[in-house]
Design brief:
The complex is a heterodimer of chains A (about 120) and B (about 550).
Chain A lengths: L11 E7 L5 E4 L5 E2 L11 H16 L3 E8 L10 H8 L10 H8 L3 E2 L7
Antiparallel strand pairs in A: 1-2, 1-4, 2-3, 3-5
Chain B lengths: L5 H22 L5 H9 L3 E3 L4 E5 L5 E3 H14 L3 E4 L5 E3 L7 H10 L16 E2 L14 H11 L14 E4 L13 E7 L5 E7 L11 E8 H18 L10 H8 L1 H14 L9 H10 L13 H9 L1 H10 E3 L5 E6 L10 E3 H14 L3 E4 L5 E7 H13 L14 E2 L14 H10 L3 H7 L4 E4 L13 E8 L2 E8 L11 E2 L4 E2 H18 L6 H8 L1 H9 L3
Parallel strand pairs in B: 6-7, 7-8, 16-17, 17-18
Antiparallel strand pairs in B: 1-2, 2-5, 3-14, 4-5, 4-13, 8-9, 9-10, 11-12, 12-15, 14-15, 18-19, 19-20, 19-21
The chains are: A alpha+beta (about 120), B alpha+beta (about 550).
């Protein structure tokens, strides 16, 4: 049984951090974990949410990701509903070092971690 | 400076090897995240909002040029080319990969450094006066005692699973530059009637969601008895400190709930039961540690300040920097150089790897190869000849490290906030930047005078907002950042927790609100008054008036 609790409202996305290097990742429609929020799978379908939940548990068990959880997504803007999650999606507003995740995404496109899974 | 002996070397290496194997076991799945989390935290490794974060210990804020160069190397090799000095005299890296952390710990061990005691419910890195050994108001250098506490507390088996984290700070000066009364235990070196130096012990201070200024637990204890006495306090806390509620688990809550008198009785009873000689440190060992901190070999330079005096007259930028960034040294002809890490557009405490190397070179060339990190997120070269200061200053200018704002309105303490921290509720770095921008005119800053603005991005108060002359707390209300303002906080020997002015401000309103308070202060102040003095004299109401238009 899934340990993930889904209590959200409206469209949901599943997020976590990559285990080895730590980036914020989102489960995409092909059931891989993707660093770009725009590639996150958004759904309100309880069956799909259940499958996402299983994928989150399994990939945590398989040491791909850490701490998966569902987030609410604004149905109109398609951005994370919560303020904190918008920061996780967009990266810091001030980063004195190398480019932020947001800038890297613009430059190199999204990174994918883990093997592609069956989309079931 | 303290140098590792064979035991220290073996201990730190063994620790780093242990963690290497723990990471391997985490990556191959032998350890779950739940099992691994406490282990990584015991080695300073957090999983933050965007990435892992590694916090490296700088015991009592003192380190060498060689160590700074290694920190720069690590920033370049494993992180994003910079580090961030924290309000606990440590340095943290915001972007390391988990797979690299064992190698980072090995590189740290090469220069007698580690990340122990920077996280977890243990006795954390002991903090101290950044001017230790050089300050004119000092009774005694506090670092030998801080080092003694480090050796006693590092992985202390009885105190590794305390109810909550535990912070100790020590000062040897009459002016408190270590915020000792905002710590779980604060120690002040004092002299008794017999002319002997010992420790005055404060207990139960702390910030966070329940800010409390520590009270005197014991007026005087000899240094010989200090460790047994600390052990007695820790035992009482470990036994009775609450474990049912994380937010009530700090010793300040125990002291409040028990009452200071009863708490003192408990400690004294525990102390009476201890056999002090068990862990009381013999004089030879105290002397051995103290020798590492003996005064450097100062030159007799009392009459060679001519070049310095001339440079002050000739170069107004230098003169301005001298006014704010130099502090009086106990030895004539020497000075304490405070290096600001609060440039106009930066984040308080951030320093690039290149700048780290410049500071390392300057320490080696001009200050007996020793650097201090301050809890106000700046750096200090504590023993510089006045005749060298202008040359040093010019090198700081080239490295963009010559911001002349120590103690002024743009010398802001600021936590990483929502930009980096998993606990934050609002951003703090952009607030600090906006205030610095608004008051960027150096002359205006000097006219305003001493001002401590401290910003936290959540109620955990890492940015010390409770004890800022102006404290700012960032909160989230329905997806919007709002900022609560506190006035009248004080981190020094006249410590006080600030009071909330009233309802919060939006980001844009906040900067104007601060400016209105500064203008009020400038209109109302008597000669020589700092913002804090004026506030104490005229009270909250006039400030509320300009904040909320209730005049």
């Amino acid at each position: 049984m899934s340990t993930l609790k889904h209590k959200g409202k409206g469209p949901q996305a599943l997020t976590a951090n990559g285990l080895r290097t730590g980036p914020v990742v989102y489960l995409s429609a092909d059931y891989t974990w993707n660093t770009a929020f725009e590639n996150a799978m958004l759904t309100e379908d309880p069956l799909v949410i259940a499958r996402m939940s299983e994928a989150g548990d399994r990939d945590e068990e398989e040491n791909l990701i850490v701490g998966p959880y569902f987030i609410d997504v604004d149905a109109e803007t398609h951005l994370p509903a919560r303020y904190r999650e918008r920061f996780r999606a967009q990266g810091p507003s001030y980063d004195p070092g190398k480019p932020t995740y947001a800038e890297l995404l613009m430059k190199d496109g999204a990174q994918v971690i883990g093997q592609q899974r069956e989309g079931n | 400076m303290y140098r590792y002996d064979e035991f220290d070397h073996t201990f730190v290496r063994a620790r780093s090897q242990q963690f290497k194997r723990q990471v391997e076991r985490r990556l191959d799945g032998s350890l779950s995240e739940e099992q691994f989390r406490p282990l990584r935290l015991m080695n300073g490794l957090y999983l933050q909002l965007h990435a892992y974060m590694l916090r490296v210990a700088i015991p009592y804020g003192t380190f060498s040029g060689k160590q700074m160069r290694q920190l720069a190397m690590i920033a370049d090799k494993y992180d994003r080319g910079y580090g961030h000095f924290t309000t606990r005299q440590n340095i943290q890296y915001n972007w390391p990969d988990l797979v690299d952390v064992p190698a980072i710990l090995e590189d740290l061990a090469d220069v007698e450094m580690h990340a122990i005691q920077t996280s977890g419910n243990c006795i954390r890195n002991t903090t101290s006066d950044p001017w230790a050994g050089a300050a004119i108001d000092e009774i005694e250098d506090p670092r030998p005692i801080a080092e003694l506490i480090r050796q006693w507390s590092s992985l202390h088996p009885e105190f590794t699973y305390l109810p909550r984290k535990f912070k100790i700070a020590i000062t040897g000066a009459s002016n408190d530059r270590a915020a000792i009364r905002a710590h779980d235990i604060g120690l002040q070196i004092v002299q008794n009637d017999a002319g002997e130096n010992g420790l005055q012990v404060y207990v139960g201070g702390g910030l966070g969601r329940t800010p409390i200024i520590g009270n005197v637990l014991r007026e005087f204890i000899s240094r010989h008895e200090l460790l047994p006495y600390l052990e007695a306090i820790m035992r009482v806390y470990n036994r009775y400190g609450r474990r049912d509620n994380k937010y009530k688990a700090r010793i300040k809550i125990l002291v409040q709930e028990t009452g200071l008198e009863k708490f003192r009785d408990e400690v004294e009873a525990e102390y009476a039961q201890l056999e002090p000689l068990d862990i009381a440190v013999p004089q030879e060992e105290l002397n051995r540690i103290a020798d590492y901190f003996s005064a450097p070999d100062y030159d007799d330079v009392s009459s060679s300040d001519e070049g310095y005096d001339k440079a002050v007259i000739l170069h107004s930028d230098f003169a301005g920097w001298v006014r704010s960034n130099l502090s009086e040294h106990k030895i004539s002809g020497y000075t304490i150089v405070n290096i600001s890490l609060k440039p106009l557009k930066g984040a308080p405490g951030d320093i690039s790897a290149d700048q780290m190397r410049v500071v390392a070179d300057l320490a080696q060339e001009y200050s007996f190869d020793e650097i201090r990190a301050t809890h106000e997120q700046n750096l200090v070269l504590a023993n510089v000849k006045k005749s060298d200061v202008y040359a040093l200053y010019q090198k700081l200018v080239v490295a963009e490290l010559a911001t002349g704002n120590i103690g002024l309105i743009s010398d802001i303490i600021c936590c990483p906030g929502m930009d980096y921290c998993a606990l934050a509720t609002a951003r703090s770095i952009p607030v600090g930047q906006a205030i610095s921008e608004r008051f960027s005119d150096p002359e205006r800053q000097r006219v305003i005078g001493e001002m401590k603005i401290k910003i936290s991005g959540c109620i955990n108060a890492c940015g010390h907002h409770h004890i800022g002359h102006i404290g700012i707390l960032g909160l989230e209300k329905a997806g919007v950042e709002t900022y609560q303002v506190k006035l009248g906080g004080d981190a020094t020997s006249t410590a006080e927790v600030g009071k909330v002015t009233g309802k919060g401000f939006s980001f844009d309103e906040l900067i104007d609100a601060i400016e209105r308070m500064i203008d009020l202060y400038l209109r109302e102040r008597d000669t020589g008054e700092r913002f804090l003095d004026t506030y104490r004299r005229i009270g909250m109401e006039p400030f509320k008036g300009v904040l909320y238009g209730t005049d």
